[in-house]
Design goal:
Rossmann fold; seven-stranded mixed beta sheet; 564 residues; D-Maltodextrin-Binding Protein, domain 2; globular; 22 strands; 21 helices; 4 domains; alpha/beta
């Protein structure tokens, strides 16, 4: 029996996150992949003529249109398939192709999963050929589960599983908004907390995609009408004030779900236990339109252009501010200290990689003030001068992004050499070797003409970096604009047993919350360590002033660095 050669796989929409995910999967399994989109030189029609398997991975609103434009161009024995969340209309258009294989696929997972292990892929078979069996075998080899279903039944299931679930949560969010109620409410019950978490997950996803589930699925319209009818019926009983009839509706619903209730109770109890045991701090992300300073104000930040420090500076200061980039963080401090610029922007701490030690050391060495902070969500991309993942041998970046993406890099490029550079942009400018990839932002890819091989490769999806704003003087209005409400200071303590306990008691006795506490060895000074402390109060507050005075009994050095 002749072994089936590996096909050329073409992905229309292959520059999207999901398209890239499948492209990477196929390339790792030795298949040649072609990609066509609105941003590539290769057109969808040209791709359709070359590929053995053509996969349409475009928004659901565009799927039928794309299929119509290319279905007559495929090779006679080629397979035409799609990855859309709806199947009835795409399958109808694909089956108008006169010959060759047709397969509707719906992966029931998103592009953030690391591999196919345990994932479900829906198959809607239209017309079998050898490539359908090839895909099935490849997916199952990676422990994915194939589920077969009729296109119409698929859309009916998705109307409830996707569209209705999203609708309920969007309505819940709209009511919270109208009632001016925060999801993280001090009176929140366990059920409210779980519902709010689900709502937040949906609101943080691809909302245009979720909106298309509401409008494009014809099977959803009847389900939506049933929902509105049931809501009206229950509402009328509640508004009538008749407890008996309202209770009857609740009991009726419970009886219908009686076998699922104990499962739900056990699972939600387990989830709540994990939530309480591992609380997540939701970092504040200030409005990007909020600007500080004046037009023409000279600003220094870690460069070159395209670094996250540069992006943070652009978001913080007016568009006409004069932003000067430096090669190192210490050069930002020096520029502010020498009076060459009025403000500096430096990274202070990342949610994944932790404290930026170079910033912490420079705060001790330079007599500058921190006048506020800005928290920015950080999403890393893998950038390169080639679109072939298999050619990547080295990955360069600043040490922080390398640390923030180390698990992803270990899974996907276990043999690559990881090389730290002064900044991510410096890494990009250091070489034009196509075997070298870089970790950077989408903006850096555009600015330096690089291909984006993968989006959101950071290990922690809630990845934030806090940036400090530096000045020679006090913040004044800028500190107010940045909503500074905490004090940061550095202390050194006398060397005796129990000294740190006594220092911490000063804050505890006054009910002052310490939001950060870091130690740092300093071999150049007489003391062994200095401690970086962040307190949930401002320097002018009475309790803070009292604490500073009492600290003098235990500390050889006390220096307020500023406010954040």
């Amino acid at each position: 029996m002749t072994k089936l050669k590996k096909p050329i796989i073409g992905i229309i929409g292959g520059t999207s996150q999901f398209g890239q995910w499948f492209r990477f999967f196929f390339e790792k399994n030795g298949c040649e992949c072609l990609v066509a989109s609105s941003t590539t030189k290769l057109t969808p029609k040209a791709l359709a003529k070359k590929a053995d398997i053509v996969i349409v991975s475009v928004p659901v609103t565009e799927t039928a249109k794309v299929i119509k434009s290319i279905r007559g161009l495929l090779k006679p024995d080629a397979l035409l398939c799609d990855l859309t969340s709806l199947k009835k209309d795409p399958m109808k258009e694909m089956m108008k192709r006169k010959q060759g294989g047709v397969l509707g696929m719906h992966p029931l997972f998103g592009p953030l999963v690391p591999n196919m292990e345990g994932q479900i892929i829906v198959f809607c078979e239209g017309r079998k050929n050898k490539w359908v069996g090839f895909l099935k075998k490849m997916f199952e080899l990676h422990n994915a589960k194939i589920v077969y279903i009729d296109p119409r039944e698929h859309d009916k299931q998705m109307a409830m599983i996707q569209a209705m679930t999203h609708f309920v949560n969007i309505v819940f969010a709209k009511v919270l908004q109208k009632q001016k109620m925060e999801p993280q409410n001090v009176f929140a019950t366990p059920v409210f907390r779980l519902q709010a978490i689900l709502m937040g997950r949906i609101l943080g996803a691809n909302l245009p995609l979720y909106a298309s589930f509401q409008t494009e699925n014809n099977e959803y319209r009847k389900i939506l009408k049933d929902f509105i009818k049931e809501a009206d019926s229950l509402s009328s009983k509640i508004l009538s004030g008749k407890l008996k009839y309202t209770t009857k509706e609740f009991v009726s619903a419970a009886k219908a779900m009686k076998t699922f209730i104990p499962i739900a109770q056990a699972k939600t109890t387990e989830i709540m236990y994990l939530l309480d045991k591992q609380p997540v701090e939701v970092k504040e992300q200030r409005d990007r339109s909020t600007k500080i300073g004046q037009k023409g104000t000279p600003i220094a930040c870690l460069g070159p252009e395209g670094t996250f420090s540069h992006l943070a500076s652009l978001r913080l200061f007016p568009s006409k501010a004069k932003i000067i980039t430096t090669h190192t963080i210490r050069q930002v401090f020096k520029a502010v200290g020498d009076g060459n610029v009025k403000f500096g922007v430096v990274p202070a701490e990342n949610l994944t990689a932790g404290i930026v030690q170079e910033t912490l050391d420079a705060l001790l060495d330079y007599p500058l003030n921190v006048i506020g902070s800005y928290k920015m969500e950080i999403h890393h991309c893998l950038l390169a001068r080639t679109s072939n993942w298999g050619k990547i041998e080295t990955i360069k970046s600043h040490i922080q992004p390398l640390n923030q993406c180390k698990e992803w890099l270990s899974r996907n490029f276990p043999k690559a050499i990881l090389t730290p550079e002064a900044s991510s942009t410096e890494a990009i400018l250091s070489t034009k070797d196509p075997s070298v990839a870089f970790i950077g932002s989408k903006d850096a890819a555009k600015k330096y003409g690089l291909k984006t091989l993968a989006h959101n490769i950071e290990d922690n999806r809630s990845n934030f970096t806090e940036f400090y704003v530096l000045s020679k003087g006090v913040g004044g209005q800028i500190s107010k604009d940045l909503k500074a409400k905490r004090t940061i200071l550095i202390i050194t303590v006398y060397d005796r047993p129990g000294i740190l306990r006594d220092v911490l008691s000063i804050f505890a006795d006054r009910g002052l919350n310490l939001t950060k506490l870091h130690s740092r060895f300093n071999a150049l000074k007489k003391w062994d360590y200095y401690f970086f402390i962040e307190i949930d109060c401002l320097p002018q507050d009475k309790k803070c002033r009292e604490a500073m005075e009492e600290l003098k009994k235990y500390c050889s050095i006390i220096r307020i660095l500023g406010v954040v």
